[in-house]
Known about the structure:
Distance between the termini of chain A: 28 Å
Number of helices of chain B: 8
Number of strands of chain B: 18
Radius of gyration of chain B: 19 Å
Structural class of chain B: alpha/beta
Strand content of chain B: 25-35%
Number of helices of chain A: 9
CATH topology of the largest domain in chain B: Rossmann fold
CATH superfamily of chain A: Aldolase class I
Distance between the termini of chain B: 23 Å
Strand content of chain A: 15-25%
Number of strands of chain A: 16
CATH topology of chain A: TIM Barrel
Structural class of chain A: alpha/beta
CATH architecture of chain A: Alpha-Beta Barrel
CATH architecture of the largest domain in chain B: 3-Layer(aba) Sandwich
Largest sheet of chain B: 7 strands, antiparallel
Largest sheet of chain A: 8 strands, parallel, barrel
Largest interface: A-B, 47 and 42 residues
Bound molecules: ligand 1, ligand 2, FE2/S2 (inorganic) cluster
Oligomer: heterodimer
CATH class of chain A: Alpha Beta
Order of helices and strands of chain A: EEEEEEHEHEHHEHEEEEEHEHEHH
Strand order of the largest sheet of chain A: 3-4-7-8-9-10-15-16
Shape of chain A: globular
Radius of gyration of chain A: 19 Å
Amino acid sequence: MTTARNGPPPSIASSFCGLHFASPIVLLSGCVGFGEEYTRIEGFSNTDVGGVVLKGTTLEPRLGNPPHRVYETPMGMLNAIGLQNPGVEHVVSSILPALDFGETRFIANVCGSTIDDYAEVTRRFDDSPIDAIEINISCPNIKEGGVAFGNVPEMSARVVEACRKVTGKPIITKLSPNQTDIQTNARYCIEAGSDALAVINTIMGMAIDAEKRQPIIGNVQGGLSGPAIKPIALLKVHQVYQVAGPLGIPIIGQGGICDTNDALEFIVAGASAVGIGTGLFYDPLLCRTINSGIGDYLARHGLEDISGLIGSLELPGPTGAPEVC
Amino acid sequence: MTTAETTSKSHRGTIFVEDAEILEQFTHPADQFVLRVRAPRIAEVAMPGSFAHITCAPGLPMRRPLSIMRADRDEGTLDFLYKIVGEGLGRLSQRRPGDSVSVLGPIGQPFRPDPERPRSLLIGGGVGIPPMVFLAEHMAAGTDSGWQPLVLMGSEVPFPFRLTRVGEHRGLPGAASAAIEDLQAKDIVSRLASMADLDGCYRGYVTDLAAEWLSGLADKEIDEVTMFACGPTPMLEAAAAVARRFGVPCQVSLEEYMACAVGGCAGCAVAVRTDDGVAMKRVCVDGPVFDAEAVFPPAA
Ligand SMILES: Cc1cc2nc3c(=O)[nH]c(=O)nc-3n(C[C@H](O)[C@H](O)[C@H](O)COP(=O)(O)OP(=O)(O)OC[C@H]3O[C@@H](n4cnc5c(N)ncnc54)[C@H](O)[C@@H]3O)c2cc1C
Ligand SMILES: Cc1cc2nc3c(=O)[nH]c(=O)nc-3n(C[C@H](O)[C@H](O)[C@H](O)COP(=O)(O)O)c2cc1C
Ligand code: FES
């Protein structure tokens, strides 16, 4: 597989839905606030990533869930933030103007409890400098919304359709792993006008304090993220790529990416960009390491950029992945 | 407003990640440890009340928050005091001098001494003691106020410090005759409280000891007092109640489970009363120090 290549060093930049990504890395919604929080750390820069997805935003402000909201579990963590956010009006009028759009692509993450909510929040972002809109149909924490939309392909499609009508900006639909047939859901969302897919959101779980016989998370249940979910996320990206790849719909692969090799596995499975959330909590300066790791890999494999790597998985048999184990 | 998102850029580059060498790890009774690491960039700017987020051991990726107890700018070192609670701090306690730990810091809004109210009453309970040591030594090193802080510590297990016998201090019961040697050496008055019959300690809650001292002050003196507290939640609630009873402002340092510790995840948010109603504020970057009245409002 290793081929020497002459010429300029490989580039980790790419085009994603027509947007210039300086790196395939996208910082994930809910992990980096509204884009400025991690810049507190010396050595961290938004210029090191292709895009930054802002915290899930709703029509009205939300206070979110009571503590505890996060808890470490083996090789991962549970979270139930409850979509704490100041509402789309505040985000558009006070937060976006302070972001430096020269640094990276900023992507909104849209949530709602009715289809009209989703459409209205999307419409507000359409009239803003935001670069793209991610629709969080898969948010697992909100009792009155997320789960139902993301788990029923027809409902997912209706949300995407409604948002599509009100924006010309790229739409990324974020799929939930908490459903039986992610391929059908992906197909419906693409047909409804989604330009890209994000795969996957967190997987629902819980933690219990046996001494107190109480749930540890204030919301009782929370979304599991981090390395513990990586094998599941990889399989989902692989499955969704079979639907989305032939249609030219790019995927942001995510779930437990913590190093260069994790990122490469997702790209090989079919991701055009890779999302990092929990990994940043472990190592806030991870992005630079992964960028140079991907560059080294491309050079070693004689590749000019990541395009030749996306979905390059070589399956064992002529029929592709076996249906049963 | 429901949240406190960061929009200005003045905070950029204020928190450092250092691979810090462990210089010393002292074991004290009841699973308590004092850890000294070399982290010069953090030590340079740390302030009393700020904390660090530490990777305890390989294979346990989530960091653990620990208050900074001492930051020595000249030596470039940080001291932490911790008590094993579970796996994270248990594994940190097994690390040896020469090992390296990743330290993210300094994080958070520090304590804010009030020059108008220079009589500082510092109350530390259990693992809430470390920021009080930092604050006391920091105040004592400054010359402006003319007042030395009074430090009251409470613990139900032996104190992880060398103690010394001292005489009576105005307004404090004679039974409280033990003091922390390091603080005493810096002319900082300290007294200890415990329910566990520890030698030289006032028998009772540290907040009772605080109330006893406050009740011995004249009204004019009370007007010069500020309280600072860190410790378990029931102790902080009691401190807030004492402060309210005497009409004294009180700052408390809170704990909450954390993931990022830099304001990104809102995982550490707690309800805080503001002029605009209740807001969810992040303990990591909006705190950990809050006004007691805002986080422990009087019961309705
Ligand atoms: C700002 C701040 C400063 C702190 N300073 C000190 C200190 O100086 N000395 C000290 O001994 N302890 C301090 N703590 C508490 C310390 O962080 C916890 O005891 C520690 O995280 C427990 O980890 P563990 O793996 O040993 O325990 P476990 O109970 O196994 O931890 C499981 C998970 O819950 C979290 N957790 C459990 N208890 C707490 C807690 N009280 N606060 C925050 N997270 C918790 C852990 O971080 C971990 O993610 C501080 C906490 C905060 C928020
Ligand atoms: C603390 C936290 C908050 C999150 N909030 C959101 C959110 O608001 N909207 C959303 O679409 N996903 C949210 N997510 C999911 C992440 O964006 C991401 O899809 C998931 O964590 C998997 O990636 P990771 O394993 O790299 O963290 C959140 C995840 C975490 C850990
Ligand atoms: S721990 Fe992430 S915001 Fe405080």
